Inverse folding.
């Protein structure tokens, strides 16, 4: 089940991001407030993105997609 190995990020308000993940035994979801939204979308990332984010230095994180659904 591909959805179980990913994390869903979705914009739920003008400055709110919802984060959700599950492995059928445990589900987690939460919101992050105070984000800057230029276009409301929902993105699905592989779980390992959080390991990469933890290794990054403190500071803002920018996520962008293009019309071909590539994410940078």
């Amino acid at each position: 089940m591909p959805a179980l190995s990913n994390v869903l990020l979705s914009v739920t308000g003008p400055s709110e991001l919802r984060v959700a993940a599950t492995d059928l035994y445990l589900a987690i979801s939460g919101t992050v407030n105070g984000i800057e939204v230029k276009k409301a979308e929902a993105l699905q990332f592989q779980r390992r993105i959080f390991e990469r984010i933890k290794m990054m230095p403190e500071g803002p994180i920018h996520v962008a997609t293009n019309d071909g659904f590539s994410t940078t």
